[in-house]
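Hi V.,

Quick status before I head out on leave. The structure for the redesign project is tokenized and pasted below; the design run finished overnight.
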């Protein structure tokens, strides 16, 4: 009987460790989800569309774009390219999380699917307490953040259906979100070199290709530059993580023990 209880005890312990770190995301995702829901309803979509997108797309900025495309002519290729461009940054997140996702078994597909900006930020930088299974910690962070987004989108769509609201300028909320995320990463990063590379590459691509076509060239340039600078950046990043505290070492040990099981 104890063998059946212990896994659930480990999962609940991981939930208790993960939940406090997601509280700031709760406030942001509920507000932005309401924004997305109201915006979708303002386009004439049924109330359940934002909830469905939150469950199966779960990519905030892309959902705004998809909502607007659902009201136009059916063009799956254009939709695919637009969503790919918007979420191409997740390619870099995935590279950074390869080691952390290794050995996670059945949890891995969902961890990959649910890796949004905020979830990546927590799972990449959080110091998992000793004795807490890292795989379940990351899973709870991912699931909680998606549930916050689903709740916000549903609440916004229901409110938008019931009330006549003025949504002019509401899409700027996503721009503000990304600006805050960038500033937060700049302040936390032990060396701002990667942020500087991103800004310089984006500006260069913007000048060279224009505002309509610069996104993919910018991503390619960032990938090339980060790859070339990897050997120089990694020692500084590792030194910054080591200086943050000894808790990470214990967490890694716990992760290896969980993988061995």
């Amino acid at each position: 009987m104890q063998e059946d209880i212990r896994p659930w005890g480990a999962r609940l312990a991981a939930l208790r460790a993960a939940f406090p770190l997601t509280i700031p995301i709760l406030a942001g995702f509920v507000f932005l989800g309401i924004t997305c829901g109201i915006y979708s309803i303002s386009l004439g979509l049924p109330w359940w569309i934002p909830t469905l997108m939150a469950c199966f797309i779960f990519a905030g900025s892309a959902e705004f774009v998809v909502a607007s495309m659902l009201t136009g002519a059916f063009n799956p290729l254009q939709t695919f390219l637009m969503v790919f461009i918007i979420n191409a940054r997740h390619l870099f997140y995935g590279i950074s999380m390869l080691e952390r996702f290794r050995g996670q078994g059945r949890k891995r597909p969902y961890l990959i699917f649910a890796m949004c900006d905020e979830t990546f930020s927590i799972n990449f930088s959080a110091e998992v307490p000793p004795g807490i299974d890292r795989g379940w910690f990351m899973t709870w962070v991912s699931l909680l953040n998606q549930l916050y987004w689903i709740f916000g989108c549903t609440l916004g769509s229901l409110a938008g259906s019931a009330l006549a609201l003025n949504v002019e300028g509401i899409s700027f909320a996503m721009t503000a979100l990304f600006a805050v995320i960038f500033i937060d990463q700049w302040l936390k990063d032990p060396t701002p070199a990667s942020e500087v590379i991103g800004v310089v590459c984006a500006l260069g691509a913007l000048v060279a290709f224009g505002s309509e076509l610069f996104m993919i060239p910018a991503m390619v340039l960032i990938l090339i530059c980060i790859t070339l600078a990897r050997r120089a950046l990694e020692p500084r990043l590792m030194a910054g993580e080591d200086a943050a505290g000894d808790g990470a070492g214990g967490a890694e040990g716990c992760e290896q023990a969980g993988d061995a099981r």
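Above is the designed sequence. The CA atoms of residues 24 and 118 lie 10 Å apart.

G. will cover questions while I'm gone.

Best,
W.
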